[in-house]
Amino acid sequence: KEILEKYHDQFTLQWEGVIGSMRVPSQAEWEQLLTNCSAFLFYGMERFMSHVLLNWLVAMNIPKCHLVILLDLVRSQQSYQRITNSDIHKSCLRIALERPTETAMLLSLTGVGSVIATQWYTTLQENAERLEVLFENLLSFGKTIGQTVHILQ
User: Fold this and answer.
1) What are the sequence ranges of the domains in the chain?
2) Could you list the residue ranges that cross the membrane (predicted)?
């Protein structure tokens, strides 16, 4: 929340979204946010694709979204229990489509221009540090997405 407030004025007057501590977004909200944005940020627990319906995502057309930042793959005891209960009802192939590379490919196929995503499990603090570096370089310094990713590496 602090990072969003810090960069609010530098980026846009219209930050729109849902903070998970408020409520869990519905599928309709996910769709509305993705289709009406030029950049989308997911900062949350477990795999991004475990929060959205695969059939719904692959049917979307979201070419206005130039950048998706997925700072996911954070695990807590509660999130692990939720994901385990959810995965029981999914095929191995469906779970494989939720991995970072596959998620980036699916988002690209829907029209997203660039995807920045974590590749392995991490902590909320590490993702907060990544978000700070991303926003600082993209918004404050005006670096390109490629230059910013290079800095993150």
Assistant:
1) 1-124
2) none
pTM over 0.70: yes
> DSSP string of 113-129?
SEEEE--S-B-HHHHHH
Q: What is the pLDDT of residues 67-111, one digit of tens each?
A: 999 999 999 999 999 999 999 999 999 999 999 999 999 999 999
Check whether 1 has a pLDDT greater than 80: no
Give the span between the Cα atoms of 142 and 1, in whole angstroms. Answer: 22
- Report residue 152 as tokens: 């993150």
Closest CA to 132 of 6, 14, 8, 47: 6
Q: Is the pLDDT of residue 9 over 90?
A: no
Using CB atoms within 10 A of its CB, is residue 86 exposed (0-12), middle (13-18) or buried (19+)?
middle
